[in-house]
Give the backbone structure.
Amino acid sequence: MYPDRKLTHVLPGRIPLIQSPTPLHRLGAMSKQLGIDLWIKRDDLTGFALGGNKGRKLEYLMADILASQAKVVVTCGAAQSNFIRQLSAACRMLDLRCAAAVMNMPYEDAEPETLVHGSGGNLVLNDILGTDLRFHANGTWEELYDLAEQLALEYEAQGKTVYRMPIGGSSPLGAYAFVEAAKELDQTFDAIIFASSSGSTHTGLAVAFAGSQTRILGIACDPEPEIAQDFAELAKGLKQYLPDIPDILADDYDLDFSFVGPGYGIPSEAGTAAIKRLGCSEGIFLDPIYSGKAFAGLIDLAEKGELTGRVLFWHTGGIPALFAY
Ligand SMILES: Cc1ncc(COP(=O)(O)O)c(C=O)c1O
């Protein structure tokens, strides 16, 4: 249950996009298999643009874009980004242009490769939505951010007002959405476990449950431990909406890097096994890059006796990517 505490709010604008509260239910078969009381929060079923945790963030981010008067939203990400798909849908609904610089696999130490134009999964949906996707050969995150900036400048040179959207929608507003999401829980959990990458899901939940008995455990899908520093910056930025929240520093984040597998954006063996296990046990699908790896972490920790009691798996979506790998 959301801790019963009154926080001072400076309310940001919000445009409703998702069907909330998303379903929350028990996983009977998996509870039995793992010897824990396992529940699931179904953000794969937001009812918006094929679901996923980004719909929540976009409710606040789209209001901010409209307030900025921008006509074009520029972002970046992996070619199979779930965020870009949901952002594109929201932009179309509000008559805004969505443009993104993408790489098949952006990461530090990425092997430079010749450009491969991917297909399937989220790219099919971006095609339907008419997203201005600019494909680039693999490179580092810094290179990808620079390419997004060049794209923004290109639109500005045409006289368009541009909103620069951070990767994954991870601005303090994105984190705010997950402080609010926590209020949808009507019971107490010993642990909440989920896929963590650009950090606003993790930051929002960490802030919502700060000082409570509930363990907020992110399973990292990105192999770089420095990301916790970015998460701490998000928590600092959240104070503009929630001035009384405690400080959350990089070391305060409970982030487990053991389940990334071969790298960001590359399916792992354990993740693939977890997808099969949940699909066959409960009829619920996960994705290979985020939620599958997170569920692999949950299985492993429960089997080792490191996750006990009543546990909530927060399903963050990503299903379209299943059809891309
Ligand atoms: C399916 C899915 N799960 C989890 C995440 C991670 O969420 P966050 O970026 O808020 O850390 C993402 C983000 O890309 C995602 O697409």
